[in-house]
């Protein structure tokens, strides 16, 4: 017997630090989205208790105002201590890392796709993005790497030309001191023809939300809740970007999943509605959860996590990112006067061991340990063709922890 929509469980969702496609805002390096599944009476009791500890002239107890005082932080701690286990989950995006994964996704992956090579199934896309993200500012000039990221963001937003983007790529490559790593940067140069084609598509169609982290993050969060709740109603605090993409979210199950050949994307289990946080105490709790997670992760990214010892979060901070990337057989000409980098023939080395000979060692090992690696969001499709994008959980914030959704206990 099917359950009517009104009888389904309800998850309330809010976000923190969404700067849209401006992913390189230095003041907002992390994006978070939080979901709350709480009975209305318990949520109201928690919110009322917090209100009772605050000045009467404070309208709505938002996280930013609460976290700014010792009394507010104490009230947040008390509120979090009352949350049942598993009732709150958050999803994180490390924006700077997302830029690199999106660069791999948009520019490099189509070249592999043309050769019939699936870079999602073996997680090579995630591995390449992680390799470039970690090695770029260390093995090359940090400023040159930063300029390349900014050039890519500006290129997607039609504020920079393809020539300007590839001038930044070339500047990074020329600054790299390690020959082997320079070959990985050449992968980006080799895919210049794809960028030329994609630029025309951007100009003709426009991709307003291509770099916005809200849509894939919401999908990953919702599929996590769906594993335990089944079908549910999803009530989101007012969001223009989510509103624009509601149809895409509700039809995601019609797209094939490139990471699981022959299968379709997991459906979004929540029917999306919008509401004002003033009318739903669960949305206020979601605001606190998203804000606390964002502050905690931001401190982790800055290397000052000890300053947020008041946080009751446990578990790692994961970075959501779109993943994709490249491979070609040796001897192909990359066009545009760029010879194929030798490393293009060895991208399979980034895949799990089932795709490698026994004598090969993984270039980087940690992507295989990530959880939720099958959380593929068909929500921010590659610019170059109508195939779904992919959202992987990956982390460069803390290598010591097992990446997983965050829970309060």
Q: Sketch the topology as an H/E string, one letter per element.
A: EEHHHEHHHHHHHEHHEHEEE
Instruction: Extract low-pLDDT stretches.
Output: 306-349, 351-409
What spatial form do the alpha-carbon principal axes imply?
Answer: globular
Terminal Cα span: 33 Å
The average pLDDT value, as a whole number, equals 76
**Helix count from the secondary structure assignment:** 13
Strand percent estimate: 5-15%
Instruction: Kindly report the spatial arrangement of strands forming the biggest sheet.
Output: 5-4-1-2-3-8
Major sheet size, sense and barrel closure: 6 strands, mixed
Question: Structural class, from secondary structure content?
Answer: alpha/beta
**Counted beta strands:** 8
Note down, in words, how this protein is organized.
The chain is α/β, with parallel strands linked by helices. 41% of the residues lie in helices and 11% in strands. The protein has 13 helices and eight strands. A six-stranded mixed sheet has the order 5-4-1-2-3-8. Helix 5 crosses helix 6. The longest helix is centred in the last third of the chain and has 22 residues, at 281-302.
């Amino acid at each position: 017997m099917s359950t009517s929509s009104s009888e389904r469980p309800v998850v309330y969702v809010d976000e923190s630090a969404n700067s849209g496609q401006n992913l390189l805002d230095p003041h907002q390096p992390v994006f978070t989205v939080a979901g709350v599944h709480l009975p209305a009476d318990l949520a109201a009791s928690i919110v009322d208790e917090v209100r009772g500890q605050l000045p009467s002239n404070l309208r709505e107890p938002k996280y930013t105002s609460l976290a700014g005082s010792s009394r507010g932080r104490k009230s947040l701690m008390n509120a979090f201590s009352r949350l049942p286990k598993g009732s709150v989950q958050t999803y994180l995006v490390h924006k700077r890392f997302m830029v690199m994964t999106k660069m791999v996704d948009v520019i490099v992956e189509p070249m592999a796709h043309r050769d019939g090579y699936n870079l999602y199934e073996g997680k090579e896309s995630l591995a390449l993005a992680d390799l470039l993200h970690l090695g770029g500012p260390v093995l090359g000039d940090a400023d040159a790497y930063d300029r390349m990221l900014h050039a890519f963001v500006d290129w997607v937003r039609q504020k920079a030309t393809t020539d300007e983007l590839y001038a930044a790529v070339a500047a990074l490559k020329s600054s790299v001191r390690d020959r082997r790593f320079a070959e990985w940067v050449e992968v980006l140069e080799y895919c210049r023809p794809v960028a030329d084609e994609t630029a025309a598509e951007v100009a003709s169609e426009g991709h307003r939300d291509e770099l916005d982290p809200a849509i894939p993050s919401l999908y990953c969060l919702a599929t996590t809740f769906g594993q335990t709740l089944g079908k549910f109603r999803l009530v989101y605090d007012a969001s223009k970007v989510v509103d624009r993409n509601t149809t895409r979210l509700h039809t995601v199950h019609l797209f094939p999943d490139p990471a699981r050949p022959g299968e379709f994307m997991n459906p979004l289990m929540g029917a999306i509605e919008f509401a004002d946080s003033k009318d739903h105490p669960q949305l206020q709790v979601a605001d606190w959860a998203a804000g606390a997670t964002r502050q905690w992760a931001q401190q982790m990214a800055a290397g000052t996590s000890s300053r947020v010892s008041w946080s009751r979060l446990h578990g790692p901070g994961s970075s959501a990112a779109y993943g994709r990337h490249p491979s070609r057989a040796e001897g192909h000409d990359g066009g545009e006067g760029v010879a194929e980098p030798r490393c293009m023939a060895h991208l399979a080395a980034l895949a799990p061991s089932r795709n490698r000979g026994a004598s090969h060692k993984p270039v980087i090992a940690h992507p295989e340990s990530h959880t939720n690696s099958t959380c593929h969001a068909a929500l921010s499709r590659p610019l170059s063709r109508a195939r779904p994008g992919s959202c992987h959980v990956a982390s460069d914030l803390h290598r010591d922890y097992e990446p997983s959704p965050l829970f309060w206990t």
